[in-house]
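Reviewer 2 asked us to include a model.

Predict the structure of this chain.
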Amino acid sequence: MPNAQNIDKILKDCLFRDGEDQSTSVFAKGIVTNFGFHPGRLKGHHAEIVEEL
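Predicted model (structure tokens):
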């Protein structure tokens, strides 16, 4: 079963931080919000993301 706190932690960690180059963003279009994820951190959380799905 998905863990909302873990998902929130992963989501926030995968977002770009101030000053980072966003030209390599991995885009995800949501119903309400669109996100641009940092590709390296997104890849680093791959196993956790799959587990939450």
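The chain has three helices and two strands. The chain has a mean pLDDT of 95. We have added this to the supplementary material.
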